[in-house]
């Protein structure tokens, strides 16, 4: 890939040598984790291709569209309202935060005790290896957890186009008013960036594109309720991960094509794991590309992952935006309503999330739940402690895992996961 | 003390055996750290007495007042508006959070990677050793950092009288509106608790009591600008710490009496440390009683602490509330104005704090600044990283310390502090 896109990456100011190393590791990881799987659906070929071109063709396509005036907005969080970005004719992409890079440099600007996701986002910037970040016309940060909120102050010293969105911490009326005001402010900022006014028509289009993507993912999720599973948890996670990068309409088509195939598979009783494979619900922190460590360990330990209660999964995708409003104001209200339901652990209290985990465990016929938290992610770590008693009451076995992106604890994690799988099997 | 107050503590549901142990350690610590100091002002006798009776006479007095209808409100944060509590005729006290206790039990409900202050507050509850907590009619939590915000969900399972105040994360107009709404809601809650309506007169009285306390502390702080210092940093910190517990009017008188003496000392050139002792400004996380580890290390390493940029120090005390309003609404606005200025690291951006540190370093003629953060306190840890370049630009030497309440790292800290003191001396 390097030779073909070298000029493009260079023009983005990237470090080609470092980037080549990253791509080599990423490619090897993808081969080991994904291509080694048995009995994958053919529909995953599309995702293999997307991943092989994740820093190449997709960037080229985005840059070409930018030549035609389509601005690029980068984000680190599912609270950034995609409907509004699309309404202004811009592209929304998730920014790299799933792998350790340039950690020595990172720890000169952030405390060592910062979660891997935040450190990673800084590593990609400091190491100059994220073409999404370097292509973005606007980078959106958000006041979610302390780590992100405070680290954006440091990121602001490294980039010139950071926009920070404030977010509420409760689900009170005042909190909703804050979210509304921030979404309105964001809409103005995106209009200014693109020069395109947000209208009823463009908002409806933005909502339609975004809802269609979510609906395709809902379809995929529903098919994972089948027993045996027609698709691995890793492949389904990959689809969620790719949803942050890919052109949305093409992505939607590809997921729907995959779902057509999975429906056939279910009819024909074609599965990726044997019957009675223990079914696990993953819950907790988001897993950005290429953070596949724990799912890989789970699915190579005799279990199948049937769902993700995560921002890269159902927490990020589950609610649709009501598109019935007939003016900008009511559509904006509908967007606020939709995002205000997100049960991120930054909210307090956050009982909805516990209820949702229980519901998912039932819907997906999970035999157990793995609560996954990144080290130093206090919101999800503390919720995981509280969830233990709730899951016990519900009779749902739960394993609490805290880890980061380093491979060092893989063996230890595997031992714990295997013991858990054996227990619930 | 045990025999005299045993019945009282028992009636509060405390664990007498555990509490005796705590008091023994606390008493020994106080003797080692405070009573061993040379050349202390006589005015510190009052604070010695207060500390010797911190769980005894002060609790007795509060409980007696409660018999007469004076409710007790406990708090963990300087954002809880004392003016409003006093206006409703209630007492505001800081709750225990300065020492490790019952850590094994704490780590069953909170992640190990939680800051010492939060763990301590849980330890005092789980160990049943905080008479303030057990006396409180209302415990106020606040959505400041992730650790506190999320841990209140767990505390809510341990106590029946927790009130959680939401707080903003920025200094925007919407953020101020949120603080205002939360202070109004809190005023209603305190009125309901006490049965006393908050009126212009009672608010003015609440503001007067609280401002007088702050003004006395400002006087004390101003006297610490003298070189050589008429009072140790430890003793001045103790006054700040006691301000959270003591009856406010008596406290104000005692600080003013101490200041009278310090003025005489300055006139007579009586000091606690030799001339040219290196002067250090402490900055960062709050130090609750009996968290004296780092100041003790500093002042036994040949330096004197001249100021605290901390919630237990100038950050908590520096601004007065305007008392000129003639109705409840304008007095409430003045209270909001005053608290909205607090430059806590939970805000983003928080440039005011950096400016304040530079200003304090100049005002107090500090030779260096120690940035103190509790382990896992992301807001202050991340700000400390960012402050390094600012302090370098200002030519102010800075040392970054991360620690907790355990004595284990004391030797290592002493080595680092001594090297810093030597460098700036």
UniProtKB/TrEMBL annotation, chains A, B:
InterPro entries: FldB/FldC_alpha/beta, YjiM-like. It comes from the Bacteria. Pfam families: HGD-D. Belongs to the FldB/FldC dehydratase alpha/beta subunit family. This is 2-Hydroxyglutaryl-CoA dehydratase, beta subunit. It comes from Desulfatibacillum aliphaticivorans.
């Amino acid at each position: 890939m390097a030779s073909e896109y070298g000029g493009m990456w260079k023009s983005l100011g990237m470090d080609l040598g470092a980037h080549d190393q990253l791509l080599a590791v990423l490619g090897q990881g993808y081969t080991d984790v994904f291509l080694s799987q048995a009995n994958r659906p053919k529909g995953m070929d599309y995702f293999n291709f997307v991943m092989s071109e994740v820093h190449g063709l997709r960037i080229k396509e985005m840059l070409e569209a930018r030549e035609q005036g389509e601005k690029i907005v980068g984000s680190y969080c599912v609270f950034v309202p995609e409907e509004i970005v699309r309404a202004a004719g811009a592209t929304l992409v998730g920014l790299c935060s799933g792998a350790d890079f340039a950690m020595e440099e990172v720890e000169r600007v952030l405390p060592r005790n910062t979660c891997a996701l935040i450190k990673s986002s800084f590593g990609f910037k400091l190491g100059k290896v994220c073409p999404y970040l370097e292509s973005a016309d606007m980078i959106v940060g958000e006041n979610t957890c302390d780590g992100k909120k405070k680290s954006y102050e440091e990121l602001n010293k490294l980039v010139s186009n950071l926009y920070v969105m404030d977010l509420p911490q409760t689900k009170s009326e005042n909190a909703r008013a804050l979210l509304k005001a921030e979404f309105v402010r964001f809409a103005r900022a995106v209009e200014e960036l693109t020069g395109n006014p947000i209208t009823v028509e463009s908002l409806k289009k933005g909502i339609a594109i975004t809802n269609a993507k979510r609906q395709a993912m809902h379809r995929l999720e529903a098919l994972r309720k089948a027993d045996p599973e027609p698709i691995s948890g890793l492949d389904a996670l990959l689809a969620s991960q790719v949803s942050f990068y890919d052109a949305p309409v093409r992505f939607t088509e590809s997921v729907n094509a995959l779902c057509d195939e999975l429906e056939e598979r279910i009819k024909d009783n074609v599965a990726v794991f044997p019957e009675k494979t223990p079914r696990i619900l993953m819950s907790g922190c988001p897993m950005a590309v290429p953070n596949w460590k724990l799912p890989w360990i789970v699915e190579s330990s005799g279990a199948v992952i049937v769902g993700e209660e995560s921002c890269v999964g159902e927490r990020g995708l589950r609610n649709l935006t009501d598109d019935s409003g007939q003016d900008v104001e009511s559509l904006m209200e509908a967007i606020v309503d939709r995002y205000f339901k997100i049960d991120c652990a930054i909210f307090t209290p956050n009982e909805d999330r516990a209820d949702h985990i229980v519901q998912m465990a039932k819907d997906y016929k999970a035999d157990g739940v793995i609560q996954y938290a990144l080290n130093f992610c206090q919101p999800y770590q503390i919720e995981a402690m509280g969830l233990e008693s709730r899951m016990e009451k519900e009779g749902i076995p739960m394993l609490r895992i805290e880890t980061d992106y380093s491979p060092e604890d893989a063996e230890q994690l595997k031992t714990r996961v295997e013991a858990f799988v054996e227990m619930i099997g």
